[in-house]
Design goal:
The protein is of the alpha+beta class. The protein contains 8 helices and 19 strands. The chain is globular, with a radius of gyration of 21 Å.
Length: about 290
Protein backbone atom coordinates (compact mmCIF):
# COMPACT_ATOMS: atom_id res chain seq x y z
CA UNK A 1 0.00 0.00 0.00
CA UNK A 2 2.78 2.42 0.92
CA UNK A 3 4.49 1.76 -2.41
CA UNK A 4 1.20 2.16 -4.27
CA UNK A 5 1.08 5.78 -3.13
CA UNK A 6 4.52 6.34 -4.66
CA UNK A 7 3.40 4.85 -7.97
CA UNK A 8 0.19 6.89 -8.03
CA UNK A 9 2.14 10.02 -7.17
CA UNK A 10 4.33 9.52 -10.25
CA UNK A 11 1.21 9.45 -12.42
CA UNK A 12 -0.21 12.50 -10.64
CA UNK A 13 3.04 14.42 -11.17
CA UNK A 14 2.98 13.46 -14.84
CA UNK A 15 -0.55 14.89 -15.10
CA UNK A 16 0.38 17.90 -12.91
CA UNK A 17 -2.52 17.13 -10.56
CA UNK A 18 -1.32 19.15 -7.56
CA UNK A 19 -4.37 18.47 -5.40
CA UNK A 20 -4.03 14.72 -5.79
CA UNK A 21 -0.28 14.91 -5.16
CA UNK A 22 -0.93 16.70 -1.87
CA UNK A 23 -3.52 14.08 -0.88
CA UNK A 24 -1.19 11.20 -1.73
CA UNK A 25 1.73 12.69 0.18
CA UNK A 26 -0.40 13.35 3.26
CA UNK A 27 -2.00 9.91 3.25
CA UNK A 28 1.24 8.07 2.53
CA UNK A 29 2.88 9.79 5.48
CA UNK A 30 0.01 8.76 7.75
CA UNK A 31 0.12 5.16 6.53
CA UNK A 32 3.90 5.05 6.97
CA UNK A 33 3.64 6.27 10.54
CA UNK A 34 1.03 3.62 11.34
CA UNK A 35 3.15 0.86 9.82
CA UNK A 36 6.17 1.95 11.83
CA UNK A 37 4.20 2.27 15.05
CA UNK A 38 2.40 -1.06 14.70
CA UNK A 39 4.79 -3.37 12.86
CA UNK A 40 8.41 -2.31 13.41
CA UNK A 41 9.96 -4.41 16.18
CA UNK A 42 13.64 -3.83 17.04
CA UNK A 43 15.24 -5.33 13.92
CA UNK A 44 12.36 -6.38 11.68
CA UNK A 45 8.94 -5.56 10.32
CA UNK A 46 6.22 -7.96 11.49
CA UNK A 47 4.01 -9.87 9.06
CA UNK A 48 0.68 -8.29 10.00
CA UNK A 49 -2.43 -8.59 12.15
CA UNK A 50 -5.40 -10.90 12.17
CA UNK A 51 -8.91 -9.45 12.33
CA UNK A 52 -8.88 -10.28 16.03
CA UNK A 53 -5.88 -8.01 16.54
CA UNK A 54 -3.44 -10.89 16.99
CA UNK A 55 0.03 -9.93 15.79
CA UNK A 56 1.64 -12.23 13.23
CA UNK A 57 5.40 -12.50 12.97
CA UNK A 58 6.57 -11.00 16.24
CA UNK A 59 10.14 -11.87 17.19
CA UNK A 60 8.68 -13.13 20.47
CA UNK A 61 6.72 -15.87 18.67
CA UNK A 62 8.13 -19.39 19.05
CA UNK A 63 7.49 -20.04 15.34
CA UNK A 64 7.32 -17.82 12.25
CA UNK A 65 9.00 -14.98 14.11
CA UNK A 66 10.83 -13.69 11.03
CA UNK A 67 9.30 -13.10 7.58
CA UNK A 68 11.09 -12.29 4.34
CA UNK A 69 8.67 -10.16 2.33
CA UNK A 70 8.02 -7.42 4.91
CA UNK A 71 11.77 -6.75 5.06
CA UNK A 72 12.25 -6.65 1.28
CA UNK A 73 9.22 -4.50 0.61
CA UNK A 74 9.92 -2.06 3.41
CA UNK A 75 13.00 -1.13 1.37
CA UNK A 76 11.53 -1.40 -2.13
CA UNK A 77 8.59 0.78 -1.09
CA UNK A 78 10.86 3.46 0.36
CA UNK A 79 9.30 3.16 3.82
CA UNK A 80 12.31 1.92 5.79
CA UNK A 81 14.95 4.32 7.04
CA UNK A 82 18.55 3.35 6.38
CA UNK A 83 18.89 2.17 9.98
CA UNK A 84 15.75 0.05 9.69
CA UNK A 85 16.80 -1.31 6.31
CA UNK A 86 20.24 -2.32 7.55
CA UNK A 87 18.79 -4.05 10.61
CA UNK A 88 16.11 -5.82 8.57
CA UNK A 89 18.60 -7.06 5.98
CA UNK A 90 20.94 -8.28 8.69
CA UNK A 91 18.03 -10.17 10.28
CA UNK A 92 17.17 -11.77 6.93
CA UNK A 93 20.74 -12.90 6.43
CA UNK A 94 21.01 -14.22 9.99
CA UNK A 95 17.64 -15.94 10.36
CA UNK A 96 16.39 -16.75 6.86
CA UNK A 97 19.29 -17.15 4.48
CA UNK A 98 20.59 -20.58 3.46
CA UNK A 99 22.95 -21.95 0.85
CA UNK A 100 20.01 -22.07 -1.59
CA UNK A 101 18.36 -18.73 -0.87
CA UNK A 102 16.24 -17.05 1.78
CA UNK A 103 13.35 -18.87 3.45
CA UNK A 104 9.97 -17.17 3.24
CA UNK A 105 9.74 -17.30 7.05
CA UNK A 106 11.27 -19.10 10.01
CA UNK A 107 11.05 -21.09 12.17
CA UNK A 108 8.49 -23.21 10.33
CA UNK A 109 5.08 -23.84 11.84
CA UNK A 110 4.90 -27.11 13.77
CA UNK A 111 3.08 -26.54 17.06
CA UNK A 112 2.24 -22.83 17.25
CA UNK A 113 0.47 -21.80 14.05
CA UNK A 114 -2.31 -19.27 14.47
CA UNK A 115 -5.85 -20.35 13.64
CA UNK A 116 -6.20 -20.16 9.88
CA UNK A 117 -2.50 -20.47 9.05
CA UNK A 118 -2.79 -22.94 6.18
CA UNK A 119 0.99 -23.09 5.80
CA UNK A 120 1.04 -25.66 8.59
CA UNK A 121 -0.50 -28.14 6.15
CA UNK A 122 2.97 -28.48 4.62
CA UNK A 123 6.02 -30.07 6.29
CA UNK A 124 8.59 -27.69 7.79
CA UNK A 125 10.76 -25.86 5.25
CA UNK A 126 8.48 -26.65 2.31
CA UNK A 127 6.29 -24.28 0.30
CA UNK A 128 4.82 -21.46 2.40
CA UNK A 129 5.82 -23.17 5.65
CA UNK A 130 9.38 -21.90 5.75
CA UNK A 131 10.36 -23.07 2.29
CA UNK A 132 12.70 -21.12 0.04
CA UNK A 133 9.97 -19.71 -2.17
CA UNK A 134 11.52 -18.66 -5.45
CA UNK A 135 9.48 -15.58 -6.34
CA UNK A 136 10.49 -13.47 -3.31
CA UNK A 137 14.19 -14.06 -4.06
CA UNK A 138 14.02 -11.37 -6.74
CA UNK A 139 12.71 -8.92 -4.16
CA UNK A 140 15.53 -9.50 -1.67
CA UNK A 141 18.00 -9.10 -4.55
CA UNK A 142 16.35 -5.79 -5.47
CA UNK A 143 16.17 -4.59 -1.86
CA UNK A 144 19.90 -5.10 -1.33
CA UNK A 145 20.72 -3.47 -4.66
CA UNK A 146 18.58 -0.42 -3.87
CA UNK A 147 20.59 -0.02 -0.67
CA UNK A 148 23.78 -0.18 -2.73
CA UNK A 149 24.86 -3.55 -1.34
CA UNK A 150 26.09 -5.18 -4.53
CA UNK A 151 27.90 -8.05 -2.83
CA UNK A 152 24.77 -9.10 -0.97
CA UNK A 153 22.49 -8.64 -3.99
CA UNK A 154 24.67 -10.88 -6.12
CA UNK A 155 25.01 -13.41 -3.30
CA UNK A 156 21.25 -13.90 -3.19
CA UNK A 157 21.16 -14.10 -6.99
CA UNK A 158 23.80 -16.83 -7.09
CA UNK A 159 22.23 -18.82 -4.27
CA UNK A 160 18.96 -19.19 -6.16
CA UNK A 161 20.13 -19.18 -9.77
CA UNK A 162 19.52 -22.58 -11.44
CA UNK A 163 22.75 -22.19 -13.40
CA UNK A 164 24.70 -21.92 -10.14
CA UNK A 165 23.54 -25.37 -9.08
CA UNK A 166 24.77 -27.51 -11.96
CA UNK A 167 27.29 -29.18 -9.67
CA UNK A 168 24.55 -30.20 -7.23
CA UNK A 169 21.99 -31.50 -9.70
CA UNK A 170 21.54 -34.66 -7.63
CA UNK A 171 20.32 -32.45 -4.77
CA UNK A 172 18.28 -29.90 -6.71
CA UNK A 173 16.61 -32.46 -9.02
CA UNK A 174 15.05 -29.86 -11.36
CA UNK A 175 16.41 -28.91 -14.77
CA UNK A 176 19.38 -26.50 -14.54
CA UNK A 177 17.75 -23.90 -16.78
CA UNK A 178 14.49 -23.17 -14.96
CA UNK A 179 13.36 -21.90 -11.58
CA UNK A 180 11.06 -24.03 -9.51
CA UNK A 181 8.24 -22.78 -7.33
CA UNK A 182 10.22 -23.47 -4.16
CA UNK A 183 13.26 -25.19 -2.72
CA UNK A 184 13.24 -27.07 0.57
CA UNK A 185 14.85 -25.14 3.42
CA UNK A 186 17.30 -26.19 6.10
CA UNK A 187 14.63 -27.58 8.44
CA UNK A 188 13.97 -30.29 5.85
CA UNK A 189 16.03 -33.49 5.49
CA UNK A 190 16.02 -32.73 1.74
CA UNK A 191 17.47 -29.23 1.95
CA UNK A 192 18.17 -27.92 -1.55
CA UNK A 193 15.64 -30.09 -3.39
CA UNK A 194 13.47 -27.97 -5.70
CA UNK A 195 9.92 -28.53 -6.88
CA UNK A 196 7.27 -27.48 -9.44
CA UNK A 197 9.28 -26.39 -12.45
CA UNK A 198 7.95 -23.62 -14.72
CA UNK A 199 4.96 -22.89 -12.47
CA UNK A 200 6.36 -19.72 -10.89
CA UNK A 201 6.53 -15.96 -11.24
CA UNK A 202 10.21 -16.05 -10.39
CA UNK A 203 11.39 -15.19 -13.90
CA UNK A 204 9.82 -11.74 -13.64
CA UNK A 205 10.92 -10.92 -10.09
CA UNK A 206 14.49 -12.10 -10.66
CA UNK A 207 14.61 -10.18 -13.93
CA UNK A 208 13.64 -6.99 -12.09
CA UNK A 209 16.08 -7.79 -9.29
CA UNK A 210 18.90 -8.25 -11.78
CA UNK A 211 18.06 -5.58 -14.38
CA UNK A 212 16.77 -2.78 -12.14
CA UNK A 213 18.75 -3.89 -9.09
CA UNK A 214 22.18 -5.30 -9.91
CA UNK A 215 22.49 -3.69 -13.35
CA UNK A 216 20.70 -0.62 -12.00
CA UNK A 217 18.74 0.20 -15.17
CA UNK A 218 15.57 1.97 -13.98
CA UNK A 219 13.36 3.72 -16.53
CA UNK A 220 10.55 6.09 -15.62
CA UNK A 221 8.31 8.67 -17.30
CA UNK A 222 11.02 11.25 -17.79
CA UNK A 223 14.02 9.14 -18.71
CA UNK A 224 16.27 6.47 -17.27
CA UNK A 225 18.51 6.10 -14.23
CA UNK A 226 21.58 3.85 -14.34
CA UNK A 227 22.80 2.92 -10.87
CA UNK A 228 24.55 -0.47 -10.76
CA UNK A 229 24.97 -2.33 -7.47
CA UNK A 230 27.56 -4.99 -8.22
CA UNK A 231 30.06 -7.30 -6.52
CA UNK A 232 33.13 -5.34 -5.50
CA UNK A 233 35.27 -7.86 -7.41
CA UNK A 234 33.86 -6.76 -10.78
CA UNK A 235 36.39 -4.36 -12.26
CA UNK A 236 34.45 -3.57 -15.44
CA UNK A 237 31.54 -4.67 -17.58
CA UNK A 238 29.32 -3.47 -20.41
CA UNK A 239 25.57 -3.41 -21.00
CA UNK A 240 23.26 -2.60 -23.89
CA UNK A 241 19.75 -1.24 -23.42
CA UNK A 242 17.10 -0.44 -26.04
CA UNK A 243 14.89 2.31 -24.66
CA UNK A 244 12.28 4.40 -26.49
CA UNK A 245 13.81 3.86 -29.89
CA UNK A 246 17.34 4.56 -28.70
CA UNK A 247 20.19 2.18 -28.03
CA UNK A 248 22.28 2.79 -24.92
CA UNK A 249 25.82 1.40 -24.97
CA UNK A 250 26.86 1.41 -21.32
CA UNK A 251 30.37 0.78 -20.05
CA UNK A 252 31.09 0.56 -16.34
CA UNK A 253 34.55 0.75 -14.79
CA UNK A 254 35.18 -0.09 -11.15
CA UNK A 255 38.87 0.58 -10.46
CA UNK A 256 38.47 0.92 -6.69
CA UNK A 257 36.35 -2.16 -6.01
CA UNK A 258 33.13 -0.37 -5.06
CA UNK A 259 29.68 -1.94 -4.78
CA UNK A 260 27.67 1.09 -5.89
CA UNK A 261 27.80 4.82 -6.57
CA UNK A 262 29.80 6.70 -9.19
CA UNK A 263 32.64 9.18 -9.41
CA UNK A 264 32.04 10.00 -13.07
CA UNK A 265 28.95 9.70 -15.26
CA UNK A 266 29.38 10.67 -18.92
CA UNK A 267 26.70 10.67 -21.63
CA UNK A 268 27.79 11.23 -25.23
CA UNK A 269 30.91 13.00 -23.99
CA UNK A 270 29.06 15.25 -21.53
CA UNK A 271 29.71 14.72 -17.82
CA UNK A 272 26.64 14.63 -15.58
CA UNK A 273 26.40 15.34 -11.86
CA UNK A 274 23.56 12.80 -11.58
CA UNK A 275 23.17 9.27 -12.92
CA UNK A 276 19.80 10.11 -14.46
CA UNK A 277 19.46 10.66 -18.22
CA UNK A 278 16.40 12.70 -19.29
CA UNK A 279 14.63 11.21 -22.30
CA UNK A 280 15.33 14.29 -24.44
CA UNK A 281 19.08 13.75 -23.97
CA UNK A 282 18.99 10.30 -25.53
CA UNK A 283 20.24 9.84 -29.09
CA UNK A 284 19.82 6.96 -31.50
CA UNK A 285 23.16 5.61 -30.26
CA UNK A 286 23.74 6.87 -26.73
CA UNK A 287 27.18 6.25 -25.26
CA UNK A 288 27.25 6.05 -21.47
CA UNK A 289 30.41 5.72 -19.41
CA UNK A 290 30.25 5.18 -15.67
CA UNK A 291 33.26 5.19 -13.37
CA UNK A 292 32.38 3.90 -9.92
Amino acid sequence: LYYAFTVMKAFAEYKKDTDYIAYLEKTQKEVGEKINNLWWEDDRFNRGFKETGELIGSKKDPEASMWLNPQSWSIISGLATKEQADKALESVNRELNTAYGAKVMAPSYVDHAFDGALAILFPPSTKENGGIFSQPQGWIILANALMGYGNEAFKYFEETSPASQNETAEIRKLEPYVHGQYTEGDESPFHGRSHVHWLTGTASTCMVGCVEGICGIRPDFGGIRIAPAIPSTWDKFTMEKNFRGCKLNISVENPNGKESGFSKFVVNGEEYSDNYIPADKLTKETEVKIVM
